[in-house]
Amino acid sequence: MEASARADHTTVDLLMRAEAEARESAARLAGTDAAHTVLLPNTSIGLFHAAFGIREGVVLTARTDFPANHYPWRRAMALDRAVPRWLDPEPGSGVTPELVREALTADVVALSVSAVDFRSGFRADLAALREAIGPDRLLIVDGIQAFGVAEMAWGAADVLVAGGQKWLRSGWATGFAALSDRALERLEPVLTGWTGVEDAGRFDGVDHPPAPDAGRWSVTHPSPVTATAFAAALGLVERYTVAAIERAIAARVAELAEAVERHGGRVLTPAGPRRRAGILAFTVPGVDPSLVGKALHAEGATPTVRDDSLRLSPHASTPAEAVHRVEAALSSLRG
């Protein structure tokens, strides 16, 4: 922001280099390479690319998922392309291999799933889901609730999309997609823009073919300012490692879960590091979530408040003091 405000003849070239840095860093963290990775402004754009890229067939996706995972498939169906088949996970759970196997039929061409359920914090077993659908179907993964803070089998995904405004803390209008060779082969590049074609710098009025790699999902240049922020955020993750970040978060989540239960709350997120990432969903029986939220705010703790539950999402930098604030808030409800 400061560099762009004081722009001189070197500023544009300097900032434009951040796109390649961010793409390479995201690729490393996703277990792939830059040719299979493209920067996107958010998760939704990536999901629309995937949905419109499927010419026909049924796509399994959870009815309980975040709406950003619904509308791409609804819009694709309206255009006579992919047709969603809704999965109904058990409350407090998510998409499991068993649920997927029950819904599989010959016309299913893909499974679209969140790596971590936004409501319950349920952590999907991506490797098991890949095994459940077999090698010939596409696995499309929304990784925004896990990328950068949980070691997961990202390589099992044919399409991995993640925005950077949550766990990566890089701000809005940051994100990426990583595509497998299978995805590049099967997904039609319907939304390819002028920056996603071969010889994009040649302005000759001719319809250029889509780029042969993940760059075909580019619609236009990303903001060099947000790309710089994304590169910085990804660099922090690489510096401290996902494993170390995950351990720190797991320890804080465990402390918060104990505090919630100690003061009469009920934890909704499955227990155990293999079944949850950083989200801790809970309720306080008999107390409206909005009132619990006000008590937490009064103590300087910030939850996400929903109609039926609350969510705490500590990061590696969340201090132990936060647990005491939560305990004080919950204790005040009993008084």
Low-pLDDT windows of residues: none
Largest sheet, described in full? Answer: 7 strands, mixed
Continuous helix count? 11
Helix content: 25-40%
Explain this structure to me?
Helices cover 38% and strands 14% of the residues. Strands 1-7-6-5-4-2-3 form a 7-stranded mixed sheet, sandwiched between helices. A 4-stranded antiparallel sheet has the order 8-9-11-10. 44% of the residues are buried. With 335 residues, it is α/β, with parallel strands linked by helices. The N and C termini lie far apart (48 Å).
In a few lines, what is going on in this structure?
The protein is of the alpha/beta class and 335 residues long. The protein has helices spanning 2-5, 11-30, 43-53, 71-78, 97-103, 126-133, 181-186, 224-240, 242-262, 289-298, 321-334; strands at residues 37-39, 58-62, 83-87, 108-114, 138-142, 159-163, 175-179, 266-267, 280-283, 304-305, 310-312.
Topology (SSEs and partners):
Layout: H1 2-5, H2 11-30, E1 37-39, H3 43-53, E2 58-62, H4 71-78, E3 83-87, H5 97-103, E4 108-114, H6 126-133, E5 138-142, E6 159-163, E7 175-179, H7 181-186, H8 224-240, H9 242-262, E8 266-267, E9 280-283, H10 289-298, E10 304-305, E11 310-312, H11 321-334
Parallel strand pairs: 2-3, 2-4, 4-5, 5-6
Antiparallel strand pairs: 1-7, 6-7, 8-9, 9-11, 10-11
Helix pairs in contact: 2-8, 3-4, 5-6, 9-11, 10-11
Descriptive terms for the model:
335 residues; alpha/beta; seven-stranded mixed β-sheet; four-stranded antiparallel β-sheet; 11 helices; 11 strands; globular
